[in-house]
């Protein structure tokens, strides 16, 4: 018996050690700071861990507080189910197919190559949606990971009133006096989780790239300037941003007071009252949750020391960050198209008078005479119609010239590259031009469904693959190569060099002088954005007869002129056909 014991004992130990080895080398079972997570293998041989909690749910007394670490778990967390996916609280949307909209939304998803022996660059996606809509989990990283050997992480963050409410009571409750920046704090908390844990999934924590579109791109401007984001990333890709979606704390308090009044919580115990409300009632009391207005993040003096565009102008941003920034050719066509439709007009019936009226409101804070803009900088006779003239004006003021201003400001101390997406696919659209969100189906490969029933051709699919390759190459090296192997020239203030995606091919056309003839007139606004509020009522554009005999349009706006133009009171819900603002 003793011999048998001596014989079987080592065998049992060997079996135990073998089992332990299997557990710790399982490419789908990974350790995190809070417990193990079990992933799955998706098509094309990509490992995925769905919806890992990175913080405690922001519910109850945690509503409108800084994120807190999740409670550790003892058994492996099942991260294998792809649907339904969690989306942070927002108005219901047909875009959120197979989702569960809820406050409990602090999750992230990791896509990684199957080979577990290498260290891959990490790309963290911050979704757009006017700071009030969308989910990181609408975007599938499978193809990018399989093609380009990168790791993709998509995240959720609080939206709308839940991510941006600013109250003095919340400020007093917070140890650092933060308020109105909860969505930004969520992103920072997720980035800290990624820095601490991504190497367990095969990621290189020294090669983290933030990339985001629209409100997501604007958030990246905040990360470049926030002291709490310092050191959490090394590169950024900023798509179709404004970097202006911010408001002063005073503006935020004024905006929030309306909601408190609507909720009848304007008594001594404001926070208890607001935290006791259901999410649906909160959305009901928030006039900004409906329609096309956007929520602006507050400059609270703590997590954001100043408006990001001012901080960038003053050189107060993270240095040695590589930057790839770009816009679409006709960004504003999406918004102007929707505005014109709501006015009961068409592109062809949109008149010079209409253009003058809208320009006087939308660009009020730029302190530029409307006649100077329309007659000198953008002569309307040079365009096919006043509509396309308006598209050019507002695209420059709110997208292209902001991007140029950021590139001009940062190119002296950082490696900056610029792109312009200028290719129009062969489908017909109700809005003319290469508008906001048009690049998204190329980066997130949904060309075959984004414009259904139009089916992308092989050349367009090649363009999409080229763009994904360039995005991933930037994440790896922080520099860019053209598809022909030559270097993509750095952007400089003197040359304003950029790469144009203007053909359905693998070619990128290098051009100079990006909007140099028009953008300088907008610079004073970027250098000193206003902090006051305005309200306009005007009736020079006739509305449809069913709107009443004396139609009026009321526009109320704050710091961001993208907010400004989307706050026209007559605009209702509009269809996000490809992505989010």
From TrEMBL:
Belongs to the type-B carboxylesterase/lipase family. Residues 1-25 form the signal peptide. Keywords: Hydrolase, Serine esterase, Signal. This is Carboxylic ester hydrolase. Its EC number is 3.1.1.-. It comes from the Eukaryota. Gene3D superfamilies: alpha/beta hydrolase. Residues 31-520 form the Carboxylesterase type B domain. GO terms for molecular function: carboxylic ester hydrolase activity. Pfam families: COesterase. It comes from Didymodactylos carnosus. InterPro entries: AB_hydrolase_fold (IPR029058), AChE-related_enzymes (IPR050654), CarbesteraseB (IPR002018), Carboxylesterase_B_AS (IPR019826). The keyword Signal applies.
């Amino acid at each position: 018996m003793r011999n048998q014991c001596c014989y079987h004992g080592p065998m049992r130990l060997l079996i135990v050690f073998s089992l332990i080895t299997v557990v710790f080398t399982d490419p789908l079972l990974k350790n995190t700071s809070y417990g193990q997570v079990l992933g799955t293998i998706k098509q094309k041989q990509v490992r995925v861990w769905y919806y890992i909690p990175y913080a405690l749910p922001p519910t109850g007394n945690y509503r409108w507080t800084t994120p807190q670490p999740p409670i550790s778990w003892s058994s492996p967390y099942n991260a294998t189910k792809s649907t339904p996916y969690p989306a942070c609280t927002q108005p219901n949307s047909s875009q959120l197919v197979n989702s569960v909209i809820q406050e409990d939304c602090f999750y992230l998803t990791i896509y990684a190559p199957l080979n577990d022996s290498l260290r891959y660059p990490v790309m963290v996606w911050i979704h757009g949606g006017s700071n009030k809509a969308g989910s990181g989990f609408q975007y599938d990283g499978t193809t990018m990971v399989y093609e380009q050997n990168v790791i993709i992480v998509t995240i959720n963050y609080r939206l709308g009133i839940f991510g941006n409410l600013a109250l003095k009571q919340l400020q007093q409750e917070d140890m650092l006096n933060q308020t109105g920046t909860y969505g930004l704090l969520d992103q920072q908390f997720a980035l800290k989780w990624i820095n601490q844990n991504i190497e367990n999934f095969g990621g290189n924590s020294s090669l983290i790239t933030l990339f985001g579109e629209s409100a997501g791109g604007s958030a990246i401007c905040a990360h470049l300037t926030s002291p709490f984001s310092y050191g959490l990333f090394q590169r950024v890709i900023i798509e179709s941003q404004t970097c202006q979606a911010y408001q002063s704390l005073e503006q935020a308090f004024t905006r929030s007071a309306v909601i408190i009044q609507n909720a009848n919580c304007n008594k001594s115990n404001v926070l208890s009252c607001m935290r006791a409300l259901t999410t649906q009632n909160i959305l009901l009391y928030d006039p900004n949750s409906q329609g096309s207005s956007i929520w602006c993040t507050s400059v609270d003096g703590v997590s954001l020391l100043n408006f990001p565009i001012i901080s960038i102008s003053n050189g107060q941003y993270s240095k040695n960050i590589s930057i790839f920034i770009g816009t679409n050719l006709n960004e504003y066509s999406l918004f102007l198209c929707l505005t014109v439709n709501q006015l009961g007009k068409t592109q062809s019936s949109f008149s010079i008078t209409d253009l003058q009226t809208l320009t006087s409101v939308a660009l009020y804070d730029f302190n530029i005479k409307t006649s100077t803009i329309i007659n000198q900088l953008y002569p309307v006779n040079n365009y096919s119609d006043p509509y396309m003239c308006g598209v050019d004006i507002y695209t420059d003021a709110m997208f292209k010239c902001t991007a140029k201003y950021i590139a001009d400001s940062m190119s002296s101390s950082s490696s900056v590259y610029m792109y312009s997406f200028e290719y129009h696919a062969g489908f017909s659209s109700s809005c003319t031009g290469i508008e906001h969100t048009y690049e998204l189906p190329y980066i997130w490969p949904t060309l075959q469904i984004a414009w259904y029933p139009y089916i992308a051709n092989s050349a367009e699919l090649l363009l999409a693959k080229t763009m994904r390759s360039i995005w991933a190459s930037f994440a790896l090296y922080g520099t860019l190569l053209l598809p022909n192997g030559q270097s993509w020239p750095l952007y400089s203030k003197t040359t304003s060099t950029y790469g144009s995606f203007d053909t359905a091919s693998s070619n990128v056309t290098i051009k100079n002088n990006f909007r140099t003839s028009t953008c300088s007139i907008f610079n004073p606004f970027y250098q000193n954005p206003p902090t006051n509020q305005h309200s306009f009522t005007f009736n020079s554009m006739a509305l449809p007869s069913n709107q009443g005999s004396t139609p009026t349009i009321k526009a109320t706006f704050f710091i961001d002129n993208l907010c400004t133009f989307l706050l026209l009171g007559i605009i209702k819900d509009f269809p996000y056909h490809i992505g989010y603002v």
